[in-house]
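Weekly puzzle thread! Below is a chain. First person to post its structure in token form gets bragging rights.
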Amino acid sequence: MKDIGSISKNTGAAPTLKYDICIVGNGAVGKAAALGLAQAGLRVALLGMAPPAVAAATSPDVWDTRVYALNHVARSLLSTVKVWDALDPARISAVEGMAIKGGTDSAAGTLTFDAYSAHVDALAWIVEDGNLNQALDAALKFSSNVRVLSGRVKSIQVDATAATLLLESGEAVDAALVVGADGAQSWVRGQCQIGIDYRSYKQRGVVANFACERPHHGIAYQWFTENEGIVALLPLPGQRVSLVWSAPEALALSLLEEPLSQLAARLSILAGDKLGQLQPLQPELAQAFPLSLLKTHALVAPRVALIGDAGHVVHPLAGHGMNLGFGDVTALIQVLAERGVHRDCGDERVLARYARARKEEILLMQMTTDGLERLFGVDVGPLRLLRNLGLNLLNNVPVLKRQLMTHALGRTADSE
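Winning reply:
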């Protein structure tokens, strides 16, 4: 292993490893942060329960049920850390348009977006979890400033000069800054006593993949149903789509228990003549995960910064959970690069700048996704009529549509 961190030896004690930054959590957001911060010249430790392993080659006939709709901010970050071009392009689908329906009947309101009107090559890109993590893991192997560590953290001790993470193995890791990238149940956040506001949506996201009879033409479809939740069909390469159905818990359990062919039949009726008949790609494979809203009372603490789901969890209806995490990474890299030589990575003012930089986007996404879920979760006749009128009005006001597209594409969209 390359010696990228200094080691302090204490007689009778395990050595203390010293880094500029220690990232706790080795999911995709944590890995991207490690690569970006190391590229900025910082010594980085990436700490997880087990070292990330490069995934085995994926069969052309097997598709991950977990996919991400990555926007322009995410693509820019992954390009900067030399990961985007390492992804398997044959397993990426560009989203060239979006079609949103405010219901399932013919009178439902409609809102559409397309890449041509936004003057970009794509609105987003659908990338599988395995494809993304395999490329990140490969890049980590060649990053000279990152050391990957495994083990469970026992405690965090913070003083004026550093944060020290004590591991169950007896080792200690010193860093000017600890980055919590350890997910919605963040241990780091709990150790810092950062409070949260949590609300379960009493829904589960049901995911599965299907072959479609007709080409999708790069269109992502989304239906806000009257009482069955929100259904999204995202384009995969070829005539394939990925389902994300935010369903009430009872319905979600029912969908998981029935044959996947029955779920395909449900979706075929919903999609109508747009996609034709759907067939399961893997008849036995459907999964579900609980949906919730999580707001943290702070994004930073002394010598600690939160990124990704450790700092915020939103409803997946807009597909921006991973994009928010990559936005966190981009902002953190920028504020650390601009901190000045007289401030270390964990300086209080530097972390305050990071929190300010992320506050508006996170709050807006939380309000938007939560507001839409509440709005379409109430099936009342007059309200349904107003929703449909609102969608149709928005669809016919170019300036409003353009503002929505700009935000969805990400802050770097104008440079595309």
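Puzzle host: Confirmed. Bonus trivia for everyone else. The first helix runs from residue 28 to 39.
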